[in-house]
Each structure stands twice: as C-alpha cells, then as structure tokens.
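Input record (one chain):
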Amino acid sequence: MEFNEIMDAVSRIFEAVGIAVLVFGFFIGLYLAMRDLLRGKRGGAYDMIRTYFGQSILLGLEILVAADLIRTVVVAPTMQNLEVLGLLVLIRTFLSFSLEIEIEGIAPWRRWSLKTLGKPAPNPRNDSG
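The corresponding structure, as predicted from the sequence alone:
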C-alpha cells in the first residue's frame, strides 16, 4: 500500500468519525432532553438538544476540516483542491464561530474580557429551572 492510499484511508476514517460525532451528539442531546421532559423540566428540553447538538456540530466540523486537510495536502495537492479546501475551511470557520456564539450566548472575545474583569460569563447550561 502506498503512502497516498494510507492517507486517503486515514482521511476517510476522520470523515467517518466526524459524522459519528454529529449523529451521537444529536442522540445524546435528544436522550437528555427526553430525560428532562420526563422529570418535568419542560423549558430545558429544547436548550438541552440545542446545546449538545451544537457542541457536536462544532466538534464534527473540526474533525471534518482535519479530514479535508489530510486529503488535500497529502493525497491530492492540486491548486483547485487547495482553493476548494480554502473555501470549505472559510465556510466551516464561519459556521463554527456563529455556532459558538449561539451556544455560549456571548462572543469569544467578550467572554475573555468578562473573565479579566472578574464578572461571570453567561452560562446557558445553568440548571436553574
């Protein structure tokens, strides 16, 4: 087996892991939401799915970017593939950034400034209900 074939297989494994993270994250969020509903916590079910599935999307996107990097840089390093990779990374970075803001409720640079001022950052996972 040649090096390129091995790296292609590795990138496919990364893709499978990224997809598995998305699927399992959704089902974990769904399970936890159903558990909260059965315990009478109606307001937290949607937030539970949203938080866990959002986090799994973030992790899945990062793993899929790694798969694309391996495939483009090692397996098929053409200029067209590099341009496509750049566009994919740009789109996925924007998605990751906006998802993180949606899940955490605050932009990353604001969270850092609140920590330095000694104020607690907002926590949407707070179980006050």
